[in-house]
Amino acid sequence: MLPLLDFANDFGRPAFVFFHFMTAIALVALILMHSGRDAGMSGMGYVPASQGGTHIVERNLTRLTIVVGTIFFINTIVLYHLLK
Known about the structure:
It contains 4 helices and no strands. It is an all-alpha fold and 84 residues long.
């Protein structure tokens, strides 16, 4: 058995389920913060519009979304193995 799954049995499944729930909420919030041209957070003035490419805030938001999405994916795999 994987060492992470041994740790999960000691740590408890409810903690992993709660972490999965919180990660899902964070992922939805991050996706909603992304914008089209004048929609989303940039249309409301929170993210400065860029003239020649993406702004640093938009790039960091994209990076953070990718990291949280990857964590969500890995946690989904772990929960699958814990609950089957």
